[in-house]
Specification:
Layout: H1 11-18, E1 26-27, H2 39-47, H3 61-71, E2 78-81, H4 83-95, E3 99-104, H5 109-116, E4 120-125, H6 136-145, E5 150-154, H7 166-175, E6 179-183, E7 207-212, E8 225-228, H8 232-241, H9 249-258, H10 262-283, E9 289-291, E10 298-303, H11 309-316, E11 321-322, E12 324-325, E13 336-340, H12 344-358
Parallel strand pairs: 1-11, 3-4, 3-5, 5-6, 6-7
Antiparallel strand pairs: 2-8, 7-8, 9-10, 10-13, 12-13
The structure holds pyridoxal-5'-phosphate.
Residues 7, 31, 83-85, 107, 154, 158, 183, 185, 212, 214, 220, 225 line the site of pyridoxal-5'-phosphate.
Length: 359
């Protein structure tokens, strides 16, 4: 049976089909930072590889304490999961929303999880004419009118790159009783302070913020995510729901190291910020492309010629370049594609290939 879950590229499939090795493929589709995991954390892991012989601390006290310092939130408000995927699934299962509101387009996993619980799903349509920005008053009205009990916000949003300010998030929390699930998987690629809702999660008990190590820390293989919430019953229920020793010892060790390595974090942030601005500026000169602003490590583009994104993706594949055709996202036409920021060298190859295809 075909695998229906479609996210970034399946590099293993491309490897088999085209005969490239995974290391040769320039994967512009998965939104993972190009530096790879922090070298110092990997070295630590290698030095302690024999820890496979012990169980991790079931309370994950040290890991939570490191995360608590990283996000300036109390340790007791932190829950850990095998990726944000695990946490958002657990939260949706706990809330069992009757009426949920999603931004459209957004990351597809929320809908998949909500469908498991027969939630009625409403869509707040983001408008390309306003660069997919959020109109907070319209969202509040929608929450009230549709009797929404869970609103999910990806901040910044994947695939549009649009973002909501923290004042607007607080306005939603003050104006409605709906639970608010904020996915901050891409927040570290932004200036953070004007946008992050981590601090609000300790004040408002109808807020749950989830974060990932997959994209910014380039470690999707270790499956480490964390969430922040202050609702005592929910904290208890989530901790009970999530498996005993659910975070393996290697993810635990990597986490204890990488959140403290500020030099790595600065390097990643500065590179993405600089290259994103350069790529957007260069691509804006192409007549057959509309480039949308982005606060993430990815950029959404719309082809304005007859060529659609599926065909463009196919044209780039023999050059070992993989972009994300966005046809599977609702509220986007087949002309939309997304690419993420990789190394300067890879970005230059993408620029050249796009110019060759579209000029
Ligand atoms: C918005 C968003 N949230 C969550 C995930 C998955 O994160 P994790 O690897 O932490 O489960 C992705 C992956 O593409 C994503 O784009």
């Amino acid at each position: 049976m075909p695998n229906k879950i479609q996210h970034g590229a399946n590099l293993f499939e491309i490897q088999d089909k085209y005969g490239f090795s995974i290391d040769e493929i320039m994967d512009f589709s998965s939104n993972v930072n190009p530096f790879g995991p922090d070298k110092k954390s990997l070295d630590y892991l290698v030095q302690h590889i024999d820890r496979a012989k012990v169980y991790p601390d079931p309370a994950y006290k040290d890991l939570k304490s490191v995360i608590s310092q990283y996000i300036h939130c109390p340790s007791e408000n932190i829950v850990l999961g095998a990726g944000t995927t695990n946490l958002l699934s657990a939260y949706i299962s706990l809330i069992q929303p009757k009426n949920a509101l999603l931004n459209s387009p957004c990351y597809s996993e929320y809908e998949r999880e909500l469908k498991k619980h027969q939630s009625t799903i409403h869509h707040y349509l983001l408008d390309k004419e306003t660069d997919f920005t959020f109109d907070v008053d319209a969202i509040i009205e929608e929450i009230q009118e549709k009797d929404i009990d869970l609103y999910v916000l990806t901040n910044p949003n994947n695939p549009t790159g649009s973002i909501m300010q923290v004042e607007d998030i607080e306005k939603i929390l003050l104006s409605t009783k709906a639970y608010l699930l904020i996915d901050e998987t891409y927040i570290e690629f932004t200036d953070q302070t004007p946008y992050t809702a981590c601090q609000l999660a300790s004040q408002y008990d109808h807020l749950f913020v989830v974060r990932s190590t997959s994209k910014f820390f380039a470690s999707p293989g270790i499956r480490l995510g964390y969430g922040i919430l202050s609702h005592q019953d929910h904290l208890l229920a989530l901790n009970q729901h999530l498996n005993l020793w659910g975070i393996n010892i290697y993810a635990e060790m990597m986490g204890r190291q990488m959140f403290g390595h500020k030099d790595y974090q600065d390097r990643v942030y500065q590179h993405i910020k600089r290259e994103r601005a350069r790529m957007i500026a260069e691509l804006k000169s192409l007549d057959s492309l509309k480039v949308y602003p982005s606060q993430g490590n990815f950029v959404l583009c719309e082809l304005t010629t007859d060529l659609d994104a599926k065909r463009l993706r196919e044209k780039l594949l023999p050059e070992k370049i993989v972009i994300r055709d966005c046809a599977s996202f609702p509220n986007l036409s087949p002309q939309f594609f997304r690419f993420c920021i990789l190394s300067t060298e890879a970005n230059n190859l993408l620029l050249k290939a796009l110019k060759d295809c579209l000029s």
